[in-house]
Every structure is written in structure tokens, then in C-alpha cells.
Amino acid sequence: MKPISRRAVLTMGGLGLASTVVGGTGLRRELNPSVLDPAAGESFTEPEVLRSQGGRLDVRLEAAFGTHQLAGRQARTMGYNGGVPGPTLRLRPGDTVRLDLVNRLEEVTNLHVHGLHVSPEGNGDNIFLAVEPGRTQRYEYRLPDDHPPGVYWYHPHHHGNVADQVFGGLYGAIVVEDPAEELEVDRERVMVVSDITLDRGGSLVTPSTMEQMMGREGELVLLNGQRAPRLQGRSGERERWRIVNACTSRYLALDLSGQEPRVVGRDVGRLARDGALGDVVLAPGNRLDLVVDLAQGSSELLAQPVDRGGMMGGMMGGGGPSFGGGGPVTLARVEVGSGGGPGRGGIPAGPSLRDLRDAEVDQRRSITFQMGMGGMMGGGGGPMSFTFDGQEFDADRIDQQVRLGTVEEWTIGNDSPLDHPFHLHVWPMQLLEVNGQEVAEPLWLDVVNVPARSRVKVRVAFEDFGGKTVYHCHILDHEDRGMMGTVLAQ
Ligand SMILES: [Cu+2]
User: Fold this and answer.
1) Which CATH number covers residue 320?
2) Is the dihedral of CA 160, 164, 165, 171 positive or negative?
3) What is this structure's pTM?
4) 246 is a domain residue
5) Which domain holds residue 268?
6) How far is the CA of 449 from the centre of ligand 1 (A)?
7) C-alpha to C-alpha distance for 53 and 57, rounded to whole angstroms
8) In this structure, is residue 214 part of a structural domain?
9) What b-and-e string marks burial along 321-350, b requiring 16 or more CB atoms within 10 Å of the CB?
10) Closest-CA residue to 174 (of 271, 238, 86)
11) Looking at the domain assignment, is residue 238 inside a domain?
């Protein structure tokens, strides 16, 4: 029997958390793409960009099942506007976005703008809306004038089929530009990382119940729908990479040996000081804003395996799948020639960030991820239950009632042998502590990983927008099985 967990010791750097990468004996999910995958090595491409003008953006987003170009072949998947990923939306603080979501799928869907600080009510970022097949839903998002810049994303959020639809190809990036942009670069690239499993004929493969309970990981890991594309630049050029982890469950520990990428943003806003990539791990839903001053030579952007715990060994008495045991996955090949100039020197500091550590706290609560044997809960989770505090999601129940205009401190526990990424809609979280260890500098995230059998402490300023929305596990299979709760701010 396997031990319950092979958790490595959690360490923390100035930028926050790190899960130590370990090798292991888990399933070998990824083969060397350069040898076996003829699609690897295409030139890097990016999704179409839709940019706001004069404070407005009107978007029509059509979700459909069809043939899409994926990993260098024609695949039968879902997609927005005929592409995977969907178009990149480029916005500015203060913008109003009017978005018509057209559902050409044969199942219900809806839309969530992940990380945006906008109203969750009415036809705002309201994940309780359901868009039936054949119907069109108009969403309208008004970004506050002081909306934090950064890279965000959109994807479906209809409880019960979120994992299938994101895995199936429905996601796209959102960039909120910085009105006080002081970061000049030679090239900016949006990089959406996702994973999917296709059969030989190019059709979507639905993972087994066991894989779904663990959190499905696709066999193909894609960058903008491509398999290990080739990026080219010249030495001395400064690039900015806006990276989204759109994987359904896969954690990404990025590695770019041979270059010295600097982290200038994580999830929400610019960081006050840039930091090393080091041990930063992207849980599903997390984003990374990187500056890379290109150095001559060839290198690879890798996703190193991340141990996010094991489930079956401990809870079901068998040696079931334990992810993170495979080797590194090549996301891109970077080829840098000579002659781009002398380089740009240091990276200008960002604005100092808000710090809630001195704020008056109105309420302290604790919310705990729990997994148990199923059957007792009466839910649709299968052989296991996935809950917060023993309760599966119920859209009609209010789990946390918050006073609008106050700061709260939430301790998020995890009693289970798996890591779970905690995502709160609308209001960003300042990460204070992981297992009692303080986070030195203000770090604002909208997805916070809660390691197995651990707890983290965050503070949230519930302000600007009232209304009802959700927090949930961003391993989307867990969310679909009930690991979601409601919060009402008023
Ligand atoms: Cu989870």
C-alpha cells in the first residue's frame, strides 16, 4: 500500500508558496514530445486579440463543439469562436464590456470572468445564470477605475459540467492593461496553458471516474492550443509573458533554464518588487506575469511535475493513480539569436501594494476542504464526497454572510490527503500565512493553494460590490462534485 501522501515540506520564499517537486512512481503521463509528437515545434501563435476602445468592448463569444486546430491536428473539441483558446480580451480599468455568450453546445453553459473585480449580480459575473442550448446571454462587466492590472481569464462555470467544458476547450485570456504602464518591452506574449486527452481520431476522451475524483490531467499539455511551439527572439530583447494555468487540475511548476525570468505579477496586479521564478507553483486558475530578458541560446519552458498528494492509497486501500510522477513536460522551445541590443537593465518597481495586516477585522471564519466516503451525502459525487465543512454545494443556501465594507480573515483548512486550490470570486485575497508561516510581503491572489492536511490564512476586503457569489476548489472535478460554497456580501 502506498503511503497516504508523499508531501514534501512546504517552503516559502519572498513571493509566497512553493511545493517541492519530487519524482515518484506515479503514472507516466507524458512522453518526450520531440521524439513522438510530430506536432511539436510549430511556430508559436496567439489567439486573436479583441481590444477595448474608448472605454468599451463589445464581444460576441460563441461556444460550440466542432473541429478545432489543436496540437497540430484537427481535433473534435469545444471552442469559443472556432478557436482553442478563445480570443484574448484586452481591457483597461474603467472599461465596460458587453459580452454576448451564444450557446451552440448541446448542453447548458455560462461564463465566469476569473479574477475580475466586478459585480456578481444581475448580468454581471453571475455564475448562477444558466444559458440553455441555442440561447444567447448578454453579460455586462464594468471594471472599476482602479481595477488592478494583470492577466485574468474566462471560462464556463455551470455547476456540474465545468470540468468537462474547460477540459473540452472552453477558455480564453483577459489582460487588464496598466494605465500607469512603466514597463517597456520589445514583445508581449499571452500564453494559455491547458491540457486535454484526445483519442487517435482526434476526439475528446472522457477520463475515468477515478481520474475525475483525483482531478483529471490530460495527456496533452498545450500552450495556446499548440504542442511545444517554437519561440524566437534576439539577445537583449525584453519580453513579457502573461501565463494562464487553464488546466482542469494540473499544477504547473515552470522552469526556464538558460534564461532568467523575473516575476512581475501573480494573479492580481503588479508586484511591488520583481522576484525570481524559483519555487512559484501555478495551481489551476493561477496566472503569472513574467519578464524575460532574452539571453542567447536554446532553452525550453518546462512544466515540472508537482506532487499534489495521493488519494487512493490512504482512503481506499489501493494503489490508485497519484499524479506528479511523470517527467517534465516541454511547453515551448525558446531560440534566441544574437544582436538584439545591450538589454534594458533593471525592471522598474511596481506601486506598493495594499496590506490588510493592519486592518480592523470584522469577522474571523474557518472553512475546511473535506473529502469523505460517499453515500451519506446524497449527492452526485460518486464513491467519494467533496465538500466544504461536510456540506456539498447548494445554490440556495448561504454559507457565509458577510457585511459589505468590512475586512474578514478566513482560515482555510484542508483535512484531506490532496492539495486543493481555493478560489474566491469577485474579491481578491491577501495571503497571510501557510501553516503558521507568515508571508513576508503583501501577496494578492484569487486562487490560493491549500496543501494536504494544512491550513492557510487570508484576509479579504469585501468592498465595492455586494451580492451573492461562490468560493470553490479550482480542481474543477472537485467543484463539480460539490466542493463549492456561497458567500453573500450585503
Ligand atoms: Cu479539490
Assistant:
1) 2.60.40.420
2) positive
3) 0.90
4) yes
5) 11-41+183-337
6) 10
7) 6
8) yes
9) bbbbbbeebbbbbbebeeebeeebeebeeb
10) 86
11) yes
**Ligand 1 centroid vs 483 CA: distance in angstroms?**
7
pLDDT tens column, 432-481: 999 999 998 999 999 999 999 999 999 999 999 999 999 999 999 999 99
Q: Where are the alpha helices (DSSP H) in 5-50?
A: 33-36
Centroid of ligand 1 to alpha carbon of 363 (angstroms):
25
- Give 294 Cα–ligand 1 centroid separation in angstroms: 37
Q: Is residue 371 domain-resident?
A: no
Domain count, the chain: 1
Q: CA 130 to CA 111: how far, in whole Å?
A: 9
Q: C-alpha 23: how far from its chain's center?
A: 23
> How far lies 158's CA from each of 131, 166, 276, 337, 478, in Å?
9, 11, 37, 46, 13
| Ion ligand 1: residues, CB < 5 A | 420, 473, 475, 478
Distance 440 CA to ligand 1 centre (A): 26
Q: What is the pLDDT of residues 107-133, one digit of tens each?
A: 999 999 999 999 999 999 999 999 999
Cα of 251 vs centre of ligand 1, distance in Å, is 12
Mean pLDDT confidence for 370-377: 70
Each residue's pLDDT tens digit, 161-220: 999 999 999 999 999 999 887 899 999 999 999 999 999 999 999 999 999 999 999 999
Write the single-letter amino acid at 53. Answer: Q
Percent of the chain surpassing pLDDT 70: 87
Distance 443 CA to ligand 1 centre (A): 22
What distance in angstroms lies between residue 302's CA and the mean position of ligand 1's atoms?
Answer: 24
Contact 59, 211 (CB under 8 A): no
Tell me, in angstroms, the distance from the centre of ligand 1 to residue 454's CA.
13
- 101 alpha carbon – ligand 1 mean position (Å): 28
Instruction: Read off φ and ψ for residue 410, nearest 5 degrees.
Output: -115, 130
CB 80 within 8 A of CB 170: yes
